[in-house]
Design a protein that fits this description.
The protein is α+β, with helices and mostly antiparallel strands. The chain has two domains: about 110 residues, 60s Ribosomal Protein L30, Chain: A, CATH 3.30.1330; about 160 residues, Phosphoribosyl-aminoimidazole Synthetase, Chain A, domain 2 (Alpha-Beta Complex). The protein contains ten helices and ten strands. The strands form two sheets. The chain has a six-stranded mixed sheet, sandwiched between helices. Helix 3 packs parallel to helix 4 and helix 5 packs across helix 6.
Amino acid sequence: MNETLAELGESELLRRLSRFAPPGQLNDDSAALGSDSRPMLVNTDVLVDGIHFSDASTKPSDVGWRAVAANLSDLAASGAISVDGITVALVAPGDTPWSWVEGVYTGLKAALDEYGGVILGGDCSKGSERLLSITALGRLGPLRLHRGEARPGDILVTSGPHGLSRLGLAILQNDKALHGIPLSDALRTAAINQHQRPIPRLAALQDLLNCKPESLPWRAGGTDSSDGLLAAIQGLCSSSGCGASLDEALLPRSKDWPTGDLWDRWCLAGGEDFELVLSLPPAWAQRWLDRQPHSRHIGCITAEHNMIRWQHSRQRIDSQGFDHFRTTQTL
């Protein structure tokens, strides 16, 4: 029998959830963190049923994994070198099966076991739709990455290819746009994995810290591509009062990526790839590119305020990334 949350009741639900946290962690209304000289970074992401996940495309354990990955990606893109943990706020209708919640928390714990941190606490409530809100806490390293630290002359780099998550979603939904388009097995597998089990780029950040030329200050612009590659670059440019020039030939396409407008659009604005997007001095950029096997040089920062152009044609690039309030897509 698959019990529902209404049948379990709050006390039994919390008792069952406590096994996903350290012993005794959920016994109180607050959690105490050990003192640390490093500044703490905090971020919160909300995942909503029908917007960020659905039963058609995402298993419960993958919902939990993606929730953690999205938050830890933000920490990595801010300069966090360690993760203290997360708090979890769960809202769900009373008829939600316990098996779904159990799967979500199994995914949460699996991601934390992989990348660091524990479940520190949270809250549960009945609501009209399933919603998962995660707050992650991490410790800052020597480099505080800000969107506002890009400078003209910097090299734009990213930690991996883009568009895979959007392609993975299309495959899982049997999207008509893919009918008749041959896709290699390797590309299909990579795309589905990227959509269901994205990787927060904490290791790529550590390599960035380790390869900084001694002659350079701790200054770099950074963000992640949760809302798409172009949206990440737009964020860097807007916050820094700069522009960007992108080389179309250097778009971070995956191996075996098809050609065409749709595929370039998915690469630029597909969203939820969770790669680092960095604006670095040339010498630092080259060292990082040499260390990161999947990293890409995609363009440079210019002095043209808030203007993103193709390098060769000088044409302005204007394409929307993922927008939480404008999207009508059902996942």
